[in-house]
Automatic annotation (TrEMBL):
It comes from Chitinophaga qingshengii. This is TetR/AcrR family transcriptional regulator. Keywords: DNA-binding, Transcription, Transcription regulation. It comes from the Bacteria. InterPro entries: Homeodomain-like_sf, HTH_TetR, Tet_transcr_reg_TetR-rel_C_sf, TetR_C.
């Protein structure tokens, strides 16, 4: 990696938590320079504008979560176990290096749904990829005889995603961890009954 690529990566790594916590509209150039210790010229010498930085930061945050989930799923030999990895991961989120500010899909979708089409598109793409991965696990579980052959695959995948994202939103909004525990228990029951 050359110096320019390293600088660009440094900017992304340092601003990703800021964008995830403050959102696109709430993150100022001053926030970016404070996070990186670089000048405005250094940031905009590597990125055309704030949009490019925000999109790269979103991708970085998504990769962090994807890597965590992938590692946790790899610990399981069954497809039910792979789905339950979501429950165990989000129940023990403090043990993992999740992005500061929580789920970037939830944060970005909430902010960008009416204000930033490019970020909204990226968040929708990330959610779609996640849905595909869950559907693939369910389909393979059906083929292996782990899940009922009549399981509505897309509906089940969407339910899992909605329960995870809803759990994160409710817990973040209220600060009540027992809500997270209750929702994750419901998700575990749902997965075990597939």
């Amino acid at each position: 990696m050359n110096k320019a690529a390293r600088t660009k990566q440094f900017i992304v790594e340092k601003t990703a938590p800021v964008f995830n916590e403050k959102g696109y509209a709430g993150t100022s150039l001053t926030d970016m320079t404070n996070a990186t210790g670089l000048t405005k010229g250094s940031i905009y010498g590597n990125f055309a504008n704030k949009d490019e930085v925000a999109l790269a930061a979103f991708e970085y945050n998504i990769r962090q979560i994807t890597d965590i989930i992938r590692q946790e799923k790899a610990k399981h030999d069954t497809y039910r176990g792979k789905l339950l990895a979501y429950v165990h991961t989000y129940n023990n989120f403090l043990k993992h290096p999740f992005p500061a500010g929580g789920c970037p899909i939830l944060n970005t979708a909430t902010e960008a749904d009416d204000t930033h089409p490019a970020l909204k598109e990226r968040a929708a793409w990330a959610l779609g990829k996640w849905k595909e991965a869950v559907m693939q696990d369910i389909t393979r579980g059906i083929l292996q005889g782990e899940f009922d052959k009549d399981t509505p695959v897309e509906q089940a995948a969407l339910t899992i995603l909605a329960m995870v994202e809803g759990c994160l939103m409710i817990t973040k909004l209220t600060g009540k961890m027992h809500y997270r525990n209750a929702i994750m228990q419901s998700l575990e029951t749902f997965i075990r009954e597939l």
